[in-house]
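Case study 2.
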Amino acid sequence: MKIMICGKGGCGKSTLTVLLAKALTNAGKRVLVVDADESNLCLHRLLGAKQPEIMMDAMGGRQGTREKLKQAKDQDHEDDFFKNIMSVDDLPPDCVQEANGIKLLVVGKIKEFGEGCACMIGGISKAVLSRLHEAKDEIILIDAEAGLEHFGRQVDRGCDMALCVIDPSYESIQMAGRARQIAEAAGVQTYFILNKVEDDVRQVMAESLDPKRVIGAIPRSDTLFIQSLRGQPLSVEMTEIEEACAFLLNYKKPLTLSMKL
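Prediction:
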């Protein structure tokens, strides 16, 4: 199953991606984390992994990537980056790092002033995810860029679920509602996970959400905050994460998806 983890900037997407990856790995799944956020610089540190070679760099930077994306549209063309049907093991080895049983792929990062927008990074994400076929025991977690632009680029087309992380803010709740509207118009099921909440806040947030779509509510944690602040591997275990993990493990993909994007 491929799960797009999305939400507004600062909602805790990366933190929850790491915590879910660890819980799913402990449950016996093979997990690949895809860092598809061009602005996030520390996901590998939260996983306790070394920074792998960035995929866009390995493809020759923007110029090389442009050519490879063009070639990828040719169904008869295959190379080390874009096979027509790919498994996790087909990903370029230099672009994948592993820590504690979790694999990490970093798609691309904005590095220099004036180098251009992140559209090409979205293009790589879309090309990889649309071709990547996970095995029965594999789960792919995609840490998306903040906001809704990945929907506009159709990066989510190759995903089975959009998991929206919502922090205690009106903007975050509204964005989650829009994300569900866009994703489900494309046939991608959408669920919510609340983050940084206390009981009274959770009740107010839940008033604006379909309770059947909320798979977890993660409380504020000073330990998580300090680990993240220091760029340390996240090591907190939470019952609430285990409950969200159980939902994902028991989730049954719809038999057919009506793709409209």
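Residues 170-185 form the longest helix (16 residues).
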